[in-house]
Specification:
80% helix, binds the ligand Cc1ncc(C[n+]2csc(CCO)c2C)c(N)n1, mainly alpha, Heme Oxygenase, Chain A, TenA_E, 224 residues, single chain
Length: 224
């Protein structure tokens, strides 16, 4: 069994909860409150900034030119293409560039992105890839599922989001990352695999919590 197959099985109960989550369901059937999506876009912008740093760390930690090149490409595309698309998309929800630039991370955004950065900075490349993979893989699954709902990919507000993640290019990126993790974990002893599985499980849990945070528009409970 490939290591990624083991991971896939492990997180099925959480992925099922992701798909059933009212935020995800609401994007699929178009009923999601725009204020909730607006909040999500702002927190996701902050998330993407930290996430891009993982690609930079991946470039440093990889030992072959092909992998280094791919991480460098992802760093460039996230910072210089994806984030500008995000700023454009945010305008649909009346979010200005200033609001994005001045936004403060919520507790969950900070916990999730800093957990990934901690693993990325302090552990090996396989651990870093395990930390960043649930983001890509779970979004690829959600994009694919939601795009099957008639009309969902054409929805005025959520259609572009669904199309972006259902797109072949994005599906291939998730596949590249899965294959990379399978290569990196080949022949590793069980105690290392168990640690990598734990990291993957933790960021999978964070993905679910990010949906929940956005649905409830949570910031810092102590401030409320
Ligand atoms: C909370 C959260 N989780 C996952 C993604 C998806 N995502 C973010 S960066 C990236 C890789 C390509 O740049 C992908 C797939 C998101 N946007 N927000």
């Amino acid at each position: 069994m490939k290591f990624s197959e083991r991971l896939y099985e492990k997180v099925q109960p959480i992925w099922k909860k992701n798909h059933e989550h009212p935020f995800v369901q609401g994007m699929g059937n178009g009923s999601l409150d725009k204020e909730k999506f607006r909040y999500y876009m702002i927190q996701d912008y902050l998330y993407l900034i930290d996430y891009s740093k993982l690609f930079a760390i991946g470039t440093v930690k990889a030992n072959d030119l092909k992998t280094m090149g791919k991480f460098a490409e992802l760093l460039d595309s996230t910072l210089n293409t994806e984030m500008s698309l995000h700023r454009q998309y945010a305008k649909k929800f009346d979010i200005s560039e200033e609001e994005l630039e001045n936004a403060e991370p919520a507790a969950m955004t900070l916990s999730y992105s800093h957990y990934m950065l901690h693993v990325g900075q302090n552990e090996g490349l396989a651990e870093l890839v395990a930390a960043l993979l649930p983001c890509m893989w779970s979004y690829a699954e959600i994009g694919k599922e939601l795009s099957k709902i008639p009309g969902a990919a054409e929805h005025e507000f959520y259609g572009d989001w669904i199309s972006m993640y259902a797109d072949d290019e994005f599906q291939e990126l998730a596949k590249w990352t899965i294959d990379l993790l399978d290569d990196l974990t080949e022949g590793k002893p069980e105690h290392e695999l168990a640690r990598i599985e734990d990291i993957f499980l933790n960021t999978t849990r964070f993905e679910f919590m990010f949906w929940d945070m956005a649905y409830n528009q949570e910031m810092w409970p102590a401030d409320e």
